Amino acid sequence: MLATLSRFQGPLRRPPDRPLGLWCFLAEKKLTLTACYILQAARRLQVLGRYVSTFAPLQAKVRAQQKKRNVSEKKLSRYFVDHRCVRLVAGSGGKGACSFHSEPRKEWGGPDGGNGGDGGSISFKADRLVKSLAQLVPVYMAEDGESGGSKNCYGRNGRPTFICVPVGTVVKEDGSTLVDLSEHGQVYLAVFGGSGGKGNRFFLSNENRAPMTSTSGTEGQERVLHLELRTMAHAGLVGFPNAGKSSLLRAISNAKPAVAAYPFTTLNPHVGIVKYRDHEQVAVADIPGIIQGAHLNRGLGISFLRHIERCRFLLFVLDASSPEPWNQLQHLRYELDQYEPGLSQRPHAIVANKIDLHEARENLETLKSRVTQRVIPVSALTGHNTEELILHLRELYDGYLHGDGSTEGGKPTRW
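== Mitochondrial ribosome associated GTPase 2 ==
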């Protein structure tokens, strides 16, 4: 329209000394009737332009771009989830249909109601690519079966649901073990779907030629199950709070657990992967700190002693700058043995952390004289002597693969 108006010269507004008649204006401009309608529309736009501008840019206030808030490192860190409680609800069966065949010139067509479809079931499947139970949701509901239809049409069955879990997951109900998913691809059918209802075609017999009966589908099974990951990691860092376990895990792997100057910084276990040149990977878990009386559920309690139970070999991390670091080792062993006899006798290594401090260097020789095992002095802050720890960690891992560290008699687990 604007392109058409641009061909006419002169203002669009009517001069004040000219008559109001439309034909006078047309006779003067010598325009067609179509151009007249265009001019009338242009006048209306000019009148409306006093209140709403159609060509001017929007005068709304431009909002400033919101800046992202700085998230603390503790919220950014991802922790390892090795136990979950899930509620499983299988699908219900579809209803059976009650209908009769209808066709011209065929009065007694008989019943043709189809059966309903079966409800979907829910199964657990072990997958070696899944490493944690963090992706599981609290409730799983399977698909219901569709209802039957006329003309003997059966309802579609509900699709089965498969929940992928890591290899080594133990499924429990009310404290009793149901299954141990220890092999890749192993499937456990947890809840069964309800069966579909029967249509009136199903009830056809010689005695009843026109049945009016149809049944509804049954409800799906419902269970509340507890999942525990038996194989949490190959090695576990065991120590008192604020001993430098999280800093040590940062130094030897790519994990980024939260680090702070107060005890109980780690409230959830973290897992870091130590990679070697031959493409072998060793999983190391940062276990939250243990205090005296942890086997009596003091402090963070038994829940974290359970994490240590699933590790194949242990790394006792001692604060070498403390007055008597050898007493820490005795207390740690005592707590482990009180929780499970023989737990402290698993293949292990003693790590003397914070060796960069002057007090730690003075206590190192006394510590070596009081223990019979090998002591590896490291500094998680500066990275001093972490190579020796990584090489010794590989020695423990190789011994585990050859069967020396397999405490449960199963196959060695590769990460």
